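User: Structure please.
Assistant: Input sequence and predicted structure:
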Amino acid sequence: MSVKRAEACILNGFVWIGDLMFGIETVVDLARDAIYVTMLVAAPLLLTGFVVGITMSILQAATQIQEQTLTFIPKIFSMLLALFFFLSWMAGILIEYTKKLFIEIPDIVG
């Protein structure tokens, strides 16, 4: 049993994947929305880790303690706390994005 692999090509301003044709604008919009949602969902955890890391680095510099593993535990703990706090919001964003994609499937493939 062989599996047919869908190959993509661009022809006359359209992206062909197998037998499906998409406009380049559609592909760019989908990619842009996916990147935006990814950044939006990842931002709380990344910013928490950044702020705690910078704070710990300043404290290390002020006290002249140069232990590399000292920042690890506060960062992990703060990121887990941020995950616990923001998880419902993050899940809501992902669910809404998924609903939007499923609703737009007929228009995209159309």
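The first helix runs from residue 24 to 63.
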